[in-house]
Amino acid sequence: MECNLAVSLMHDYLDDDLPKEQQMELKAHLLSCPACRMQFKELEQTDMLMFSLSHHAPSAPLELTQRIMSALPQEKKQQPWLGWIRRHPAITAAAVFLIVMFISSVSFWDQDTQLVVKGNDLDQVVIEGNTVTVPEGKSIAGNLTVENGKTKIYGEVKGNLTVIDGSLYQASTAHISGKVKNIDQALDWLWYKITNAFSDVAYR
């Protein structure tokens, strides 16, 4: 139990309006937290003084009563969204992760225009400027990924072919054994990056 919640439950505890389960949680917190324990003692003493005044001195001056009421510790209002975050930590963590990934990825979306080629057997690939070509009679063993360039397939890709923010040409002689993905939208690109990040973590 956090201190803010403990302070908010003290009044209900002294008024005997707190359920048994929360009473036990509050008592356990008071045993482990000296600051809350001291605040509870002060509140308890004030409550006892108020009880004494109301039963034994009904004619106590109004000014004294107001002074005592103003000395009572103010109950801190808990923001509703903080309570929701505490109740749903997994959803909150996932939302924060997606927001951070989105902001960081989109911020570099327009800046990252350099040609990137990933895959096996890249010595079988011909790269001229921003054009990546798999010549006829050549074979790539595994996946091939091309970012920010033109991709021309005349030979064979024995895996998946992914083209990000670029164009793809497949000749009649081309053979791709896996899936062909052409990603040219920011959200598709972001989803691709997120799934790849998860895949990298899973295989480490």
Automatic annotation (TrEMBL):
InterPro entries the UniProt entry points to: Anti_sigma_zinc_sf (IPR041916), Znf_put (IPR027383)
Transmembrane segment boundaries: 90-109
Keyword list, A-Z: Membrane, Transmembrane, Transmembrane helix
Putative zinc-finger domain span: 3-37
Family membership noted in the UniProt record: Belongs to the zinc-associated anti-sigma factor (ZAS) superfamily. Anti-sigma-W factor family.
Stated name of the protein: Anti-sigma-W factor RsiW
Protein's organism: Paenibacillus albilobatus
Gene behind this protein: rsiW
